[in-house]
């Protein structure tokens, strides 16, 4: 189990790296668009659309890595004051809810992507692209999030009977 | 089902799951699933949530978030921040509590470049706190100003959370960003005044430090080389946005590129520093936007269930004046800020607050800036304030958690006073955006 978990850890690292490179590309793309537009040489018409798509991809690519690092924010004020063993049980409830929600996104995300593919739906903005391209990323990312929830529960079963020390807030 | 029961199920249910420690994003997903089954037609509603989630992030108004955060991360990871602090320190000489004042002034300059309160607090905490403690500053005098000015980062543009507030509420993002400038500067000045007065009354809190003698160009060199270019970047970002040359997203991209360019000119932009900055940015962005992805249908379900209309009608039916309603909303936000994070504060309250703002004819920019100050307070309020924890993370063990909690009290009071002042004088928030945009 630990070896499989380590393999997935490397997959999550790779996804995080891809997200970093996409962010750099997005920054330079928008900058190039503003520069070329204001210099009177046209601008990059598809810049906005691609940037929006990158924002979506960055979020999904980083989600499993953030879960492994315990960085998805949550409110832990109650977990800290209740007896540690009950806090540990709450962690189980939390992980089971997380797993169920992830599997919901896998199943319904898949259904929506397949329906879009079968209907031949396209997104028409500056670029014309098959809608399922982006829809399909959601169930794949949440499948990885669901798998990480299973690893989390496995780690929790072996851990001390107390709440985790995960992140609690953002930005 | 009555609107009261719907409100209890949706708002009460999400609060319950939040307090059980379920990640914020998945709390909202769980409640949305229940809400979709009850109010959005079951299977069709469940599929709609997926579509909404995908669309929620493909939103150009959200793109400044990573770019503003990236600016702060670059400043942090390239070591430019140290040069800025040195430059400011050489100018501020004969002032009581000198290093604390330097922290506030440097924090104000960082705020003008960094869109992340965490980056600003961590930067100042890791760079200035050890120096202040080594020179005999009391832990409360060393930590308080850093956390306080870190929170002000949210008011002074660029600010990632301001962009999110604008995007979720429909308030003009440009106006909100610029509306935070004056209140942010007022707080910075008030913090400096407080530090000087406090140290004058109790000099032991911040013993005077020896200052290396420099004259002429030597005392100005770092300021000219490192601080002024950063102030220039801030001016370009704000100027491009308010002058109509670029959208907030485009200004943010220009700012991020300029910050990277400046770091490269100084020879500080190594591949390692760049990757650390990008990784830090993706992590904070991923955390925020994952919640948006999970929570996107929440306000729609609240509305479909009748809870939004019911709550709005119940509040309007009390016969309260608009000022009283705004004051009540601020009290709710401050209360929430004690327990929950800033993104959840927005997601829980905006679906009800924004219809009230519209119905009562309240200036949305004024309301938005008040909202920002309440969120800024939430960053500082014990026991859950994010910046208190950020400080705990960078402070050495001799600084106790009690010191950190005690240290923020005066700054929380000053922020509350500003909130009161802004309630009575909306022009503090609305004057600059009305002038520039």
* Shape label of chain B: globular
Mean pLDDT of chain A: 92
Strand order, main sheet of chain A: write it out.
1-2
Structural class of chain B: mainly alpha
Radius of gyration of chain A: 20 Å
Note the total helix count of chain B. 22
Would you write up a description of this structure?
The complex is a heterodimer of chains A (171) and B (437). Helices cover 74% and strands 4% of the residues of chain A. Chain A is mainly alpha-helical. Chain A has a two-stranded antiparallel sheet with strand order 1-2. In chain A, helix 1 packs antiparallel against helix 2, helix 2 runs parallel beside helix 6 and helix 4 runs antiparallel to helix 6. Chain A is elongated, with a radius of gyration of 20 Å. The two termini of chain A are 34 Å apart. The model of chain A has no long low-confidence stretch (mean pLDDT 92). Chain B is mainly alpha-helical and 437 residues long. The radius of gyration of chain B is 22 Å and the shape is globular. Chain B starts with a helix and ends with a helix. The model of chain B has no long low-confidence stretch (mean pLDDT 91). The chains are: A mainly alpha (171), B mainly alpha (437). The interface between A and B is large, with 62 and 73 residues.
Topology of this structure?
The complex is a heterodimer of chains A (171) and B (437).
Chain A: H1 2-38, H2 47-68, H3 77-81, H4 84-119, E1 122-124, E2 128-130, H5 132-135, H6 137-158
Antiparallel strand pairs in A: 1-2
Helix pairs in contact in A: 1-2, 2-6, 4-6
Chain B: H1 3-19, H2 24-39, H3 43-57, H4 64-77, H5 80-91, H6 98-111, H7 117-134, H8 139-152, H9 160-169, H10 173-179, H11 181-201, H12 217-242, H13 248-265, H14 271-295, H15 298-304, H16 307-316, H17 322-339, H18 342-359, H19 364-380, H20 386-394, H21 401-424, H22 427-436
Helix pairs in contact in B: 1-2, 1-16, 2-3, 2-14, 2-15, 3-14, 4-7, 4-9, 4-13, 4-14, 5-6, 5-12, 6-7, 6-8, 6-11, 7-8, 7-20, 8-11, 8-19, 8-21, 9-10, 9-18, 10-22, 11-21, 12-13, 15-18, 16-18, 17-18, 17-19, 18-19, 19-21
